[in-house]
Predict the structure.
Amino acid sequence: MDEKLSKALEFANYTQTLEDKKSQIKEKFYQTTLYFFAGGQFTVDQTLLSFVSLLLQKQNQAILIDDNENPIKIDDLKVFQDNILDVYFQATNEYFTDIQDIKRKRSIEKLVNYE
Amino acid sequence: MSKGYLLIAHNNGANDYIKQAVFCAERIKKFCNNASVSLITDSKKYLHENFDTTIFDHIIDSKQQKFDNNYRLMFDGALSSKSVQWNNAGRDTAFSLSPYEETILLDTDYIFSNNILDKCFGSVNDVMMYKKSKYLGSHLVEEFERCSDYSMEFYWATVIYFKKNNKAKVLFDLVSHIRENWSYYNSLYQISSRNFRNDFAFSIAIHMLNGMNRGSFVSELPCKMFYIKDQDYLEKIQEDEMIFLLGKKDHLGEYTLTSTQGLNVHVLNKKSLERHIG
């Protein structure tokens, strides 16, 4: 096979693995943004964080709708906010670190830790 | 409230589901803080003679319900396949056989690398299953979105959370009825394969219990069901990392490497999984 073609195909394999890896890191990020509370499941995103912050300006108790559309009673919104902030910081930090990590890896073997 | 994981293992001569169940239980214990795991099987003798059974909190004897001519072409990578008897009937008996008030019923080829499912215990939902799934490769797989082109949404029976209450009982009883009348429901819902398949039976039952519509009779489990196909290979498992060889679309026998960390994965290539268990 032509050397240029074989190098291109090799690179195509690398980009394929890189794309798959990025996609899995993103899925892992979504998973780590889940917060379970009082039998409900909440995806911690900018919307939830802003909404809870807004609610806290008025009261410390609220009913929130979880990911499965169940109404969940939150008795202490401040504690809930602290917890979801922790989840958000941890998830985004991990996501950032994982993405930085794969940017440095220039071979398929390194990308998948198969050395 | 008692809670735990429940596995079903009926060997078929081609796959060692008992071996897979022991491995699956070890992974659950490892990642889910030593959670309770029980096994439903018809091969108690084989289990006791070959494996450490202390991994299971309960071993429940159950005769397998066989489906005649329920053969399935099982691949081991893109270039190797074998037609095997598919002993998948009897999942509907899990409701009555489960020793727990809150159960997570699992396929033995569902490999744990995190504790996300453990967080489902104590949920306000009565029944939860996966509807959203993601193939680990980058090409789109539409096979698991609907049961057929003109049929209802596809639910995975691979992982089922249920409480021992009337709502869950209705679902499992209906799945039982669908299994007993499979050829009728198979035609009615225009399923392309004649084989009985739990995913289809549960999807049909959920569709019926939603009033022949989409609905919320069953809630969704957290995140997505991640899977590889039986045309792909599991290459390595180490702690919470797994490495896979994924078949290239339209390039039979060619693969690309990928890996996951901290994701639970449904490994449809059972032969490949068994090779890694050792």
Notes: Strands of chain A lie at 34-37, 40-43, 62-65, 71-74.
